[in-house]
Amino acid sequence: MKHQKYVIALLVALLFGARSFGQCLSLPGAFDQKLESSDRIFEGKVIAQQSFFGNDGNIYTSNQVEVYRALKGDVGFESSVITEGGIVGDLMQMVTPSVTLKVGDYGVFTVSEETTTEFIQIDEVSGSVYGNHRFSHREALYENIARHTGSNAIELRRVSPNAFQSSEQNDRATPSISNASPSLVTAGTQTILSIQGSGFGDEQGDGHVAFSNADDGGQSFVALQPGPHYLSWSDSEIQLYVPSATLYNSTVAGTGQVQVRNGQGLTGLSDQEVTVRYAKSEVVYNQNLNTTALVGMQDGGYAFSINQQLNAFLGGDELVRKSFEKWACNTGVNFMLTENVVPIANWAHDEINLIGLSTPGQLPSYLLGKTITTFSGCGTPNGLQWNLVEVDVLLNGDKNWRVGEGVPMQGQFDLETSVLHELGHAQLLQHNNNPESPMYFELTEGASRRHLDQATDIDGGVYIAHESANATHTCGDEVHQLYDDTNCNLSLINGIEEEEVEFSVYPNPFRNELNIVLDSGNSGTVSILDSQGKLLRSEILRRTNTIVRTDKLPSGIYLLVITTEQGRFSQKLVKN
User: Fold this and answer.
1) Is residue 176 exposed (0-12), middle (13-18) or buried (19+ Cβ within 10 Å)?
2) What is the pLDDT of residue 461?
3) Is residue 63 included in any domain, yes or no?
4) Torsions phi, psi of 426, nearest 5?
5) 378, exposed or middle or buried, with CB in 10 Å at 0-12, 13-18, 19+?
């Protein structure tokens, strides 16, 4: 199904949104580079927004900011800054990484050529900094800005009325967290987290829960502001959906402790950690929580074309094709690389799913790549749903890339890791706090992460692909069809070499039982997951031939995961 280009007249005032996306395979020191290259730096509050189509056919958002302090450059009492992405009509575009904002956001903005390159959220009352592990308070942030701009001058434009509110702490009202359950969750899947304790306040007010930030590897906390994620709030218990991110909610919950801030600005920290296995993109729009979904745009999925620059650099498409198949064979996402080689290096809503190398200077030096996802929104009985209709992936052509097997040398960045990371975003996965996962937020010189992790990457991808394949409402788009893995190379499945594990599973389709036959030298476990990625049962494989009873399972699609000393193997099964 083709989606029409929407006319520029459909400008939408956006009175909702979120804070900046974290680093998406950016480099250490990226924030300092943004400070040095910026034209203007100021502290202020977003008071209005409007999204529009640019001359290149992509969506941008104009943000009107009320300025409180000027830290660098020529800054007046108000400033208008541009961010990439937004919503016009029923078309949404997200650029990862980029800064996204909502009306009411308060903090420090760095701006280069009218485009916002960074936003650091600040609590107006306490001065606490969120989302950046290097600074806990605005004064430390100011000092860092002064070091990199060569000036410690701060010009006051206006005084925030909230600055006179008391932030003195009252020990009797300080939040105390006794329990957070369940301890194992997923984000963006409407999984409910319950936080018990005391001192939360009878009403939420300006209170919030902050999660370990998946956009910086858990080095900071990121606050989830009041909104549709919160289900209930009392002095002794908070219930909320664990958040993930797209354009209008940038809080990506990662594994780590959780924090509660009550309406008086007092905070409490949990002793225990909450493990967030994976995060699926979601959308907050018009104060409602919306879902995202894969559909079948080309041949039941998404057909990508490589650009001339990347094809020439690699001398073919073997590395890229291997990365596509690694995701598709492990998760079922229907991503395909065509034989087409296209002469373009710009992303646009042009019905071409692009993966390519940028031209010189096209991407900033602190980024390794960008993913641009375009969605079409429509109403369903379950609320508004955003279908992924187009993907563009661009890798930084100015970097020294390591291509092929072997460990990258110092000064080199691993190309396969970067491709896997961006394709993870393309299938609606967000960052996680597992430093061994390709979906970890940062890649350093000499490092590589070429294998998909079962709990974070594969299980998350399986959940998204199967949820989309089983969707009952696609708003006129074709249903996403699971990837045909009959020709998948076993060596691509979670890094297992084909000769390492010999076994068979039959029958498939099955009814009341499954037979699993391992070679005589292997033992391990077998797990059965449903189409949503939920674990249904797990058994130890102690014999060469194991029979697993399945008579209580309803008809449908399942994932069988066999784990041995050699690794893991997953296979899709069907029960009639």
Assistant:
1) middle
2) 94
3) yes
4) -60, -30
5) middle
Q: Evaluate whether residue 97 is within a structural domain.
A: yes
3-class SS letters over 208-219:
EEEEEECCCCCC
CA-atom Rg of the chain in angstroms: 24
Confidence bin at 170 (pLDDT 50/70/90) = very low
Residues β-bridged to residue 371: 96, 393
C-alpha 231: how far from its chain's center? 23
CB atoms within 10 A of CB 407: 10
Are the CB atoms for 258 and 210 separated by under 8 Å? yes
Q: Note down the domain range covering 549.
A: 496-575
What is the pLDDT, as a whole number, of residue 319?
97
User: Which candidate, 374, 378, 372, 377, places its Cα nearest to that of 389?
Assistant: 374
Q: Number of structural domains, the chain? A: 4
CA distances from 322 to 23, 313, 365, 403, 424 (A): 25, 16, 27, 12, 14
Closest among 91, 94, 96 to 2, alpha carbons compared: 91
Tell me the C-alpha distance between 121 and 252, whole Å: 15
Q: Which residues of 445-481 are buried (b: 16+ CB within 10 A; e: fewer)?
A: bebbbebbbbebbbbbbbbbbbbbbebeebbebebbb
Residue 1 has pLDDT above 80, yes or no: no
Are 370 and 25 in contact by the 8 Å Cβ rule? The answer is no
- 119: which residues sit within 8 A by CB, 6+ positions away? 19, 20, 99, 101, 105, 107, 108, 109, 110
CB of 25 closer than 8 Å to CB of 368: yes
Mean pLDDT of the chain: 85
Report DSSP letters for 170-196, one per residue: -GGGS-EEEEEE-SEEEESS--EEEEE
Burial group, residue 127, by CB count within 10 angstroms (0-12, 13-18, 19+): middle
CA 526 to chain centre: 30
Which neighbouring-strand residues pair with 292?
Answer: 386
As a whole number of Å, the end-to-end CA separation of the chain is 31
Same structural domain, 117 and 65:
yes
Query: Of 219, 248, 279, which closes a domain?
Result: 279
Give the end of a domain, one of 146, 164, 182: 164
Claim to verify: residue 303 and residue 433 sit in the same structural domain: yes
The reply to whether 248 and 375 lie within a common domain is: no
Q: Do 241 and 372 share a structural domain?
A: no
Question: What six digits make up the tokens of 414?
Answer: 């691993």
Distance, in Å, from the CA atom of 42 to the CA atom of 79, rounded to the nearest integer, reads 9
Please say whether the beta carbons of 305 and 490 come within 8 A.
Answer: no
Instruction: Show Cβ contacts of residue 317 under 8 Å, excluding neighbours closer than 6 positions.
Output: 306, 311, 337
Share of the chain above pLDDT 90, in %: 52
- Looking at the fold, whether 184 and 86 belong to one and the same domain comes out as no
In a domain? residue 490: no
- Looking at residue 29, what is its pLDDT? 65
Q: How far apart are CA 557 and CA 549, in angstroms?
A: 16
Angle at 296 between CA 368 and CA 18, to 5 degrees: 50
Q: Which residue did the predictor score with more confidence, 258 or 383?
A: 258
